[in-house]
Amino acid sequence: MLEKLTDPANRHIAEPNRHALMLLGQVLEQEPQPVICEVGIGIGATVSAMCRLLDHRGTYHLFDYSSRLDDLKPDLDGLGFTNVVYHGNTRRKLDSYNWALARLLQARREAGGPVPLFDFAFLDGAHAFHHDAPAALLLKELLKPGGIILLDDYDWSFAISPTMNPGVMPRILEAYTEEQIETPHVKLICDLFFDHDPAYRKLDIGYGRREHRRAYRKLAPDAG
């Protein structure tokens, strides 16, 4: 998969997410062996950069289509990055990374030990409410106190997408209402599940009034 990073056709998705790297760097300052996850791997730009930053420390969980993970794993193995755990799902209509996250949460509850797992979670999935709202709720429970979650495409909507807006993809009107097409779904998820939750604090990651990503820290139980 990583050969796609040098294809000029992929130049708009070939750069690693700078905010994810910045936040992981902050996590590493506090936790030298972090457990982190990425939901939605694209063509592996951020994954490969995060692996290099981790430098074989901690554990890195990846959630995406099994076919994508199967393409990526030999590349990471070849680079010596063996601290990666792969959670794949099929391409069936109602299957997604949510199922793998749910099973992970269920297994940790049933194990009887601490449920929170991740020091850092990067949610860069479908940017659609029916996928990413459940994912956000599951990740909230899987995030350790003091951990950080980053949500990509805060301001994205189907209406502004160059490939999924109704003018380019008319069938989108069969799946979504006009309101759903115009609404930034990730922003709605942040409004509903993070901005009013006293257990989460929004982090300043350098944006002004126009935000493309949002990050939150999960407060420790005794934090003010």
Which descriptors would you attach to this protein?
7 strands, seven-stranded mixed beta sheet, 224 residues, 18% strand, alpha/beta, globular
Structural notes for this entry:
- The structure is a single chain.
- The radius of gyration is 17 Å and the shape is globular.
- Helix content is 37%, strand content 18%.
- The chain has 224 residues and is an alpha/beta fold.
- It has helices at 18-30, 45-54, 66-78, 97-111, 129-142, 172-175, 178-182, 185-193, and strands at residues 35-39, 59-65, 84-89, 118-123, 143-151, 200-202, 214-218.
- β2 (59-65), α3 (66-78) and β3 (84-89) form a beta-alpha-beta unit.
- It has a seven-stranded mixed β-sheet with strand order 3-2-1-4-5-7-6, with helices on both faces.
How widely separated are the two ends?
Answer: 44 Å
Assembly type of the shown chains?
single chain
Summed over residues and divided by their number, the pLDDT gives a mean of: 96
Low-confidence stretches: none
Structural class: alpha/beta
The major beta sheet can be summarized as: 7 strands, mixed
- Strands side by side in the biggest sheet: 3-2-1-4-5-7-6
Q: Helical proportion? A: 25-40%
Give the helix tally: 8
Helix-strand pattern, N to C?
HEHEHEHEHEHHHEE
* Shape category: globular
User: What is the β-strand count?
Assistant: 7
* Rg (C-alpha, Å): 17 Å
Provide the β-strand percentage band. 15-25%
